[in-house]
Design goal:
The complex is a heterodimer. Chain A is of the alpha/beta class. Helix content of chain A is about 30%, strand content about 25%. The chains are: A alpha/beta, B alpha+beta. Bound molecules: adenosine-5'-triphosphate (ATP) and magnesium ion.
């Protein structure tokens, strides 16, 4: 915050609460956090503590019961166009890759680009570039069932990057991977952050995965209980 | 990848189901085309009876099942002729009879030779028949060509043998494939003395045609006047029935097609709930999801329709060769039939896909992603 022209933080969450089932289930109990531009934050905590819920709110897939969320300085409860936001501001990566099984690798990336303003040729070019970035150039024509778990997750990341979002929201992206594949995915996150300056919020159970981040936020029962710089991996 | 490629991909992925739905559509469309061509052609055939004469309008008995059974008193022909504004009224007795297996519906028109010119008949070879001759006949040039007959030959119709004394031309396809002989002769033979089937009326220039028509129908309530094809139902109930059946069958086909699309698309959307949820989560709009489902339905429906039009063609050609219909049914393919098939295919896709498409579009992405 050294000068007034600085970009606002990537994510600002103010006392957000979220309950389900008419208030019977309190998934988030007043979460406040800030994530800086280009920062990589890991969100950890026991099952059911509200990690995914928070991620969904940030992706504008759901709305908070109370509280405010600003992404790049904009209040996302008053978005003029949610689709635009989900397409251009955030890139989503799920635990299960959620790719379309009948489309080839490159088509799975292109499917995210319909109507994004690029020409057909530009879309194809960008998709090829992204596959190259996630080291899947040689697998362009393969459909997801023919890819390994790690490759699928890398493809999902390429799709999340399809429209150049500034923030990647990943929910247990390594949860279904063996450790070697998980490492490949983490390297990829590292690289895309270095190359593109994207902000990353990564939900994980795994301490080792969390250690790859700049900062670890620990949640329990819908609250943040601890925030710490991650120990240098060692 | 283009959006249509995605659509094609999705349809192709469900080959068996898409094909089965396509077949249902194809059958519906084939029925629509066949009925449409049949109705149109029968109407054209029936209407061409009216068109054998060069007239401003025709008069026949009202409400008969088939125009061929119309019976108008010759006195009424005189009456009509006497009206102011009528230039000429010609009474014609139409007999439809079987010539041979290839020509089961051969037309014989009984008309006084004096009226031939007024009727638009030109003798191109030979001469006219005598006014009261029961053995002389002239045939249209198309009939002559078709039957291989010329002046001087004889022709046997219904056990009666006629001498062909002339060949004529009218410029009306139907009349040129028919034959003409003396009115008295046909009346005697058909035991219909003093009766004609149709009256062809020509008016003087500037006369009030509608006024004349209402005058005739007012003074002779048992008669109906016909000017256009659409009025033809007034003197030919069968045609009206076929037209009604055509509309009914088309509507039914539309419903069946739409229901099969509905069935397929509901299943397909249900199976892909999660997929649509993911697409919405990565920024697809509701509109795009809606479009995606609609386009798939449209692709299936239009492909089915193409096959259906082809099948309809084949059915029509087979029908046209069926012994019961040779002669009356000469297939004629109006553009409107294909336009209608296309419109129905669009209609089926739209009606059938609307609900599943809306369902897919209205899914909450989170619920959809959780869907197993
Ligand atoms: N749509 C929903 N309806 C009702 N309850 C919900 C809904 N979504 C989440 N919850 C509840 O909210 C709480 C937080 O869920 P959330 O999915 O955010 O946990 P999590 O931290 O992601 O857990 P996990 O590590 O198992 O993925 C849980 O008790 C869960 O049952
Ligand atoms: Mg979770």
């Amino acid at each position: 915050m050294s000068d007034g022209a600085a970009r606002p933080p990537a994510v600002q969450v103010f006392d957000v609460k979220k309950s389900f089932e008419h208030g019977l289930v309190k998934a988030l109990n007043g979460v406040t956090l800030t994530i800086g531009q280009g920062e990589w934050v890991a969100l950890v905590g026991p099952s059911g503590c509200g990690k995914s819920t928070l991620l969904h709110l940030l992706a504008a897939l759901d709305t908070p019961t109370s509280g405010r969320i600003l992404v790049n300085g904009q209040d996302i409860s008053s978005l003029p166009n949610q689709n635009r936001y989900r397409r251009f501001e955030v890139g989503l990566v799920f635990q299960l890759h959620n790719l379309l099984p009948n489309l080839t690798a490159i088509q799975n990336v292109e499917v995210a680009m319909f109507g994004n303003g690029l020409s057909h040729g530009e879309q194809g070019e960008r998709a090829r570039g992204l596959l190259e970035a996630v080291s899947l150039s040689h697998r362009q024509k393969v459909r997801p069932p023919g890819l390994s778990g790690g490759e699928r997750q890398r493809l999902a990341i390429a799709r999340a990057l399809a429209n150049n979002p500034s923030i990647i929201l990943a929910d247990e992206p390594t949860g279904a991977l063996d450790s070697a594949s998980a490492e490949g995915v983490l390297d990829l996150f590292q690289r895309i952050r270095a190359e593109r300056g994207v902000t990353i919020l990564l939900v994980t159970h795994d301490r080792e995965v969390a250690a790859a981040a700049d900062r670890i936020i620990q949640m329990r029962d819908g609250r943040i209980v601890e925030t710490a710089a991650s120990a240098p991996a060692g | 990848m283009y959006f249509v490629s995605l659509t094609a991909r999705n349809v192709y992925t469900r080959k068996v189901r898409s094909s089965l739905t396509g077949i249902a559509i194809a059958i519906s469309i084939a029925v629509v085309v066949t009925m449409g061509v049949l109705t149109h052609s029968l109407r054209r055939t029936a209407v061409s009876i009216l068109r054998t004469g060069d007239a401003d309008f025709s008069v026949a008995q009202k409400g008969v099942s088939d125009v061929i059974y119309s019976s108008v008193d010759e006195k009424d022909v005189e009456l009509i002729r006497s009206y102011e504004g009528v230039e000429n009224a010609i009474g014609v007795l139409v007999d439809m009879t079987k010539l041979d297996e290839d020509h089961p519906f051969f037309l014989k028109l009984g008309i006084p030779p004096a009226d031939l010119e007024g009727f638009g008949v030109q003798i191109v070879a030979g001469r006219k028949y005598e006014p009261d001759s029961q053995t002389e006949m002239i045939i249209g040039y198309r009939a002559a060509r078709d039957l291989g007959k010329t002046v001087g030959d004889s022709i046997t119709i219904d056990d009666d043998t006629y001498d062909i004394v002339g060949i004529y031309a009218t410029g009306q396809v139907f009349a040129d494939a028919a034959s003409m002989t003396s009115l008295v002769g046909v009346q005697t033979e058909e035991r219909k003395p003093g009766v004609v089937t149709l009256v062809f009326v020509r008016i003087t220039e500037g006369a009030d045609i509608d006024g004349l028509r209402s005058l005739i129908e007012h003074e002779r309530p048992e008669l109906a006047t016909v000017r256009t094809e659409s009025e033809f139902g007034r003197i030919d109930r069968n045609l009206e029935l076929i037209s009604a059946a055509n509309i009914g069958v088309s509507a039914l086909a539309l419903i069946i097609g739409a229901v099969s699309i509905l069935n397929t698309m509901v299943l397909s959307v249900f199976e892909r709930t999660r997929e649509f949820g993911v697409l919405r989560a990565i920024g697809w709009s509701r509109m795009r999801v809606l479009l995606c489902v609609m386009m798939e339905a449209l692709v299936v429906s239009l492909s089915g329709a193409m096959v259906g039009v082809g099948a309809g063609f084949i059915a029509v050609e087979i029908l046209a060769r069926s012994p019961d219909l040779v002669g009356v049914f000469q297939p004629d393919y109006p553009g409107g039939v294909f336009g209608r098939a296309l419109a129905i295919a669009f209609g089926m896709a739209f009606v059938g896909a609307l609900y599943p498409a809306a369902r897919a579009a209205l899914l909450r992405p989170l619920d959809a992603i959780r869907h197993e």
